[in-house]
Specification:
The protein is α/β, with parallel strands linked by helices and 254 residues long. The protein contains 12 helices and 8 strands. The chain has one domain: TIM Barrel, CATH 3.20.20.70. Strand 7, helix 11 and strand 8 form a beta-alpha-beta unit. Helix 7 packs across helix 9. The N and C termini lie close together (6 Å). The mean pLDDT is 96. Bound molecules: phosphoenolpyruvate.
Amino acid sequence: MNKDRKLIIAGNWKMNKTVAEALDLVNGLKMELATVKEVDVVVCPPFTALDGVSKAVIGTNIKLGAQTMSEYGFGAYTGEIAAGMLKEFSVRYVILGHSERRQIFGETDALVAKKALAVHAASLKPIVCVGETLAEREAGQTEAVVGTQLKGSLVGLTPEQMEETILAYEPVWAIGTGKTATTQQAQEVHAFIRARLAAQFGETVAKRVRVQYGGSVKPANARELMGQPDVDGALVGGASLEVRSFADIVKNSI
Ligand code: PEP
C-alpha cells in the first residue's frame, strides 16, 4: 500500500487473558507475523501479563503497549502504574482516553492531556483515543465532539511530541458492537482530524501523525478501511484476542 505513513495495528486485550493465555496468544502471533515488516504491530496485554509477553516478543517485530498509565511519576497513588514501571517491560506505547476509561472511570480530556505529557516525558508514545457516541452522531455532533476531545486531550503537546503521538478514532457505537463505521464515515472523520491537527500543529506535523480507526475491525473489513487515505492503522479489541483474526487483520491490511 502506497502511503507515506507506516500502518500501525494495535491489539487492545482489555481485561482479558491470564498469563498463560497471554503467552499462548503472543506465541501464536509470533508464528503468524514473524515476517511482517510493513506494519507496526503492537499488543497491549493487561499489566499482569506484561512481564511474560515482553520476554516472548524479544527479537521479534511485535511491540508492546499498555492500556493506560498514571499521570504521576511515583508515590502514594494506590492501584496506579507509572511510566518507569512500564519501561521495565520494554513498553513503547500507551493507550490513553479509551472510551471505556472515559465512560466507566470518568477520565476527562484534561486528564488525558496530563497523561499524554507524562507518556512523552518518559519517551513512550501515547495512542490517544477520541470518538462520539451514537446519540452524538445522530444529533449531528460528531465533529464538534471529536474536535473538543482532540483539543482538550492534546493540550500542551509540542509539535515534536504531536508527531510522536498516535491518534485513534473510535466511534463509541462501533466498539464491541459488531457495527463498523462505513469506510466513508471513517475517512470523513479521519480527514477532519487531520485538518484539525494541521490548524493546531501545522501541515507537516498533520501529515506525519498516524490516525488509527477502531470499532469492530475484523479481517473482512480491514483491507477496505486501511485503504482509506487518512486511515493509518487500527486499534482492535475483540478480534485481537484470537491469533487467527488478529493475524489476518494485519495480513489483510498490507
Ligand atoms: C476497542 O475497544 O478499542 C475496540 C475497537 O473494540 P472492538 O474491536 O471489539 O470493537
